[in-house]
């Protein structure tokens, strides 16, 4: 939002032309270097950057060594938008995993973003430098503090995260490098990790992850939702009882619920956190009014849109999250049908036609309510019938012949982009911003004043709505009680929002960005896959006073799909002739007593020799001279007579487990 949108022919350019202005972009408030002053400037449209927009990515992404990345897991369609910035980096060879639907939606959104950005790139011309003028320190210093903080971040370390947008070729190369999965489908990385995706309930195709390896399993919990009107339900059962659970749902940062209220509501005993069953969590969900609140929001927004068009105004809805747009589209069109108003609905996007068509062929990724509509012979979404009846018009661009021929006002328009800096939304907003009868519906825009700054004065009505996109504070502790992980990695940013009781069935570690945490993650036992015909050839022996059974094997131990596999030699006769192996250290007192029974008098010398790993030495002088050196991993019997050595060996064999 720090950039000025594409101006039209009637706009007054937000800068003063100067002879030394560079073609690669400059600040709207251009002044001579000799007149710059470090004073706080007022924020207005002239403060915005008049240049080809760059996009903010991960902090210090330009410093990353892409060859060090092994695996990338993408949890939502929106999460793939920044992927080409990484895949185009030198040395990148990581495995990328994403669900099939998220990959397709993400590809369409990236292609749409590149298409919208092409309009700006055409206006500003080819790039002249990899370091535009607005990134220079002297230009950043004269920016208003609001814009400067967006560019630099609160700590001033986010400047390196700004990059030029990728190209259509970068998008194609990125898509070729990803591996798509269905829900619960296994993908094995390097033979050691089995990776699975499970529905998170937020968006169609969004997911949480489990990583199962030989030393333990890890669950990654991203933004998830118990309210699912279109997407498949939140599959939290598949995250049950993992060794480590990484909690990465930051939507609670926007939750206004008090911490005290959350604790009192979700934890029956403030000092003790007891496990909950899946049935308990199910009842907890049923008691929640989240579903009702979501529906009431949709009905209210729809009613505002209907009132607007009744008064002769038009409605502009910049697209953001796909799920929310689908719900608004269905609710508004249903209300228009019920009111018998002949108001056209336009969807303006270069990829909308492909996206809507794709929605009709993925019922297995949708909620049960949507699937039941399919089984009942009804379309998955109400817009399918309205498209056939020409009540919804899908066009690829604002200047398309189809739109020009069918244009009618008042109307309802869905189009990109939610930032109000690129895309058809900029043109429609310029058309209606001065109309007090029209309505702009924004979803979850953090700074609406800044978003609308280039269009001031704005006379049209603005309705901002926020829909829940994750787990609320009230549900965090009940969910963790139900999942019962051994260790929970919890964001440091949420430490003050929720406190865990002292008595709980899991340990909690708080993590921050770029910090390394060491977590104990070990299985109590390991599994070994052995063929039935090979297992029948084992020679087993049970240890004394123990439940363990041991067998000598000779073969090859492999690790595949995070499981150990044993391949034995074809020749198993050699196992019968292998020398006897013993388990553990002999008890010195039992050894002396056993030697005395066969007539050998011995004494014990306890020593500690770290270099030779000797534990003790047993001396025998009467009637035979011998020496028994007991080490941590072996025992050595030394005697002048071979028969004496054999006798002592039998004594040691009787008090030890041999196999």
From TrEMBL:
Pfam families: Beta-Casp (PF10996). GO terms for biological process: snRNA 3'-end processing. It comes from the Eukaryota. GO terms for cellular component: cytoplasm; integrator complex. Its main location: cytoplasm. The keyword Nucleus applies. Keywords: Cytoplasm, Nucleus. Coiled coil: none annotated. Residues 325-452 form the Beta-Casp domain. SMART domains: Beta-Casp (SM01027). InterPro entries: Beta_Casp, Integrator_9su, RibonucZ/Hydroxyglut_hydro. The keyword Chloroplast does not apply. It is found in: Cytoplasm; Nucleus. This is Beta-Casp domain-containing protein. It comes from Crotalaria pallida.
